[in-house]
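Translate sequence into structure tokens.
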Amino acid sequence: MDLKELRKELSELKEEMKELREGLVRLEQEMLGREEELHRAIKARGMQVHRRDPGDDLIFPSEASPEERTSLYQLLRHYSFRLFLRDVISTKDAFRAEGLVRYCSLEIAQQYISSLCELKLAEAIGKGTSRLLNRSLSSFGPTLEWFVAQMFQREFASPAIYGVRFKETHSGGDYDVIALWEGWIVYVEIKSSPPRGIERGEIGSFLARATDLLPDIAFLFNDTQLRMKDKVVLMFEEELYERYGTSSDRFPVQRLVDELFHINHRIYIVNSKRDVVTNFNLCLRDFLFHQRADLFPILPPPRRLK
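Result follows.
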């Protein structure tokens, strides 16, 4: 390659880099504009955000690169990795792959540990022994909230914030995730413990926060593959009856499919059986269908023959 050709290629590369930078600027402006829409929708409800997107209790540091965050997000899409990470955090100190095989094979546990080290979230401190770099991390909850907010941004093209606290609300407490999807406000309450670890008071708090925010869609997401019908659905029915008495018949808890349930196609009870993204997508499509059915009568999907 002669000098003239080299200069030509260099000039073309500079032009491509310029186009990429301009594209990134446009994308950032678009995302900021859409996030402003979310904040306007919240403000229109008379709510004032006091705190959002806390980073202190996440598994990754604030200086993590976009590529590292994307890699972590892809790992978190796997239910087995989320269970694995809960166990890692609960160890409080050093861990070995052999002690993390409750929900995955030894080979998979070793791969997950390697991924944590590659992402600079953990470090090897001895033969077969590792530990998290964030030694003060005590809960998986905030990272799970970040993951769900990222899911709305990445899979549903929706601005989302997590760990949200408002000023002067009747219900108090944090809103785990709030998103703006298709112009609709979505509120997600997240439970990482199995159903036996959820108390009825938590269902009441979820409904109270929904009453304060007035979202268009609300989710109670329990990150488990266990059944929702046996306890969580029953607690919803009990809480609704206590609130509305015999009028609670207007708010039946009905099965959507498998272990996904809904209340009047506005409030959804969701678990992780199959896939969390798939489950949220099913519920969002159900909401959209029932919101627009009167305006544009689309035929419902045919029933599958057994």
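Note: The first strand starts at residue 49 and ends at 51.
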